[in-house]
Amino acid sequence: MTPYYAELSASGVPTVRFEGSQSLRCLGITKNGIEGWDSTPAAKVTSTERGQGDGGHDIMAGDILYASRTVSLHFSVVDRDRTRLVSQLDALRRMVHRPVRLRVVDVDDTYCDGGYLSLTMDAKRHESWTEENTVTIVFERPERLSTQAMQGDCRAGGASGGGRSYGPDHMGLVYPLDYGVSNAGTDLYQIRNEGTSRAYPVYTLQGDWPHGVHLTLTGSDGQASELWYDSPVHMGTPVTLDTRSGTATLGGTDVSRHLSRPGYQTVPPHGYVAVLLDTPGTGWVTVTSHHTYM
Q1: 162 by DSSP, 3-state: which?
Q2: Alpha-carbon gap, residue 50 to 150, rounded angstroms
Q3: Domain C-terminal end among 142, 160, 182
Q4: Do residues 102 and 52 both lie within one domain?
Q5: Exposure string (b/e) for 191-208, b if CB count within 10 Å is 16 or more?
Q6: Are residues 235 and 270 in the same domain?
Q7: What is the pLDDT of residues 87-137, one digit of tens each?
Q8: pLDDT, tens digit, for every residue of 133-170?
Q9: Cβ–Cβ contacts within 10 Å for residue 272, how many?
Q10: What domain range is 157 assigned to?
Q11: Terminal CA-CA length for the chain
């Protein structure tokens, strides 16, 4: 049988687990399930009616966006020990005022992060069980991400016939790549997205790069762009380039002014982005991404 459960977590408090099948001494997901998890959020599309003719003007692909994701997890608690039953509910209540992460394990193992919750409890009292209750979580970032991150390094210097890959079944940065042997000072990687929505890679520049870092990105559609951070990077002070926000940060400080060529690319579903590092230095670039679902 396929495993099925959910985990709700937040910093500073224990993780709360909801079992997919009801049993004694647990929080169990009821038959009403987890609303808003497998569905897409509401579409955010602004349309304009045609002044002459039927219908409205055509919508471009880039204008089809989605709202925040709202998830309603329906659950009940069964425990013959009343004190223990209330304790399980209190563990859930301790997550108020904290950003939460919801992970759901089914055929896919995915999570949403940075949400806030509210809890609705049925007023009927039973000694060893509860009626169906609902925890509702709003995630401003609507994407569901694979729990297993896809991660690999691009390293400067030396010949290379491709790159290392991390992640299950080499579904992230895959090797060997079909680019032949890299020259000294360059490295090539390919990061894939086996999800259903575009993914947003994060690039962490580490080590010593006296002249900054230059990356050439080529998507599976053939589109090429340049990602160039033009300021020195030093060992122990990594710089993070975030595709989703389009920013560069150093120690929590925004240093996006040094992105002279901010050619970020998302990774299309069932597609890839090839990353070429062609900067002299003694450092490396860690690329992190997730299979992404909407």
Answers
A1: coil
A2: 45
A3: 142
A4: yes
A5: bbbbbebbbbbbbbbbbe
A6: yes
A7: 999 999 999 999 999 999 999 999 999 999 999 988 888 888 788 999 999
A8: 999 999 999 999 999 999 988 887 643 434 444 444 44
A9: 19
A10: 150-293
A11: 25
